[in-house]
Amino acid sequence: MTRQLRFTGTDSKVDGCPALHTDEGTGEIIVQGTPVTDPEDLAQLKHFGPGDAAVAVPRELLVNWGPKEMEHVPELVDRATFRRLFETFEYTAWRLETRRGYASDREDPDYQAFLATGSAPCDPNEPWFVNIKAQTEAGKTVGRVRVADKPMTTEQRFLLDYARHNAAVGEDIRYLWREDAGDLPAEDFWIFDSRIVAVLHFDDADNITDIELITEPAEVVRYAIVRDAAMHHAVPFDQFAAAE
User: Which residues form the DUF6879 domain (predicted)?
Assistant: First the structure.
């Protein structure tokens, strides 16, 4: 069966080699580097089997990007702690949205109004809008990239219509088609100030089950790379809607 590999990191400044990848299924680490082929070098290796391959990588690659623990123990936080991050971030808050729908949206009266009229209202005095408006007026950046399907789900169409309300308080809302998001992970997360990541875990009914905080620098950088790739490919919501 084909492995599901996730790029972990590289110290290379030019061509991306050497690098580490993680097998999402087994947790194994795949090391990418310069092959060791000299028979005299290989003869010095202990327990080197006939089907084995040897590669040479800088020590810094393993120090900077290798896993820091044998078994990852997630740091889970409650909703109140998560909400506090939107009040305490200093520079940027950014989200990737990849799901086809969210239970919280379907429970929103604005969603029901959208189903009835095709247009989503909003209350600008809702705590979310009040806080984000205050943050962006203070010079901070808030944004998201949403991955959309062809055809878009009803929930995705609701969010696309609702994006104008987010934009009105300073959020930078962008979109890209799922077919153009092949290099992005299928997970939702917020990244704050490029130092804290909040990964949102969902059940099959699109409810948030857990919120996991990640502060390990190598992992945060991985999510920052995802952010940069998403922003590179995405377009502003109004441009996306006009072309949809």
Answer: 81-241
